[in-house]
Specification:
By secondary structure, the protein is mostly helical. The protein has one domain. It has 3 helices and no strands. α1 runs antiparallel to α3.
Length: 75
């Protein structure tokens, strides 16, 4: 198989995984925080355990998706 035929499949899989990873993350901001307002003072929290793994995994998946998109543009 050529890279031209495999690359779109890889991008679809990465896009689905990134979407799932983002949706699994817990959000501390409410609806007001999404639009710039905030009902409470924001606090700093340290990610631990699965939450930290999911955060790093999401970043890695996002970087891989961008790399595959750049490769697809250059082919």
């Amino acid at each position: 198989m050529e890279i031209k035929t495999i690359l779109p499949i890889i991008q679809i899989v990465l896009a689905v995984l990134v979407t799932v990873a983002i949706l699994l993350q817990k959000s501390e901001a409410g609806a007001g925080g999404a639009f710039g307002g905030s009902d409470s003072v924001s606090t700093w929290r340290t990610r631990r355990g699965f939450e930290k793994f999911l955060f790093v995994f999401t970043i890695i998946l996002s970087v891989l998706f961008v790399v595959t998109a750049v490769i697809a543009l250059n082919i």
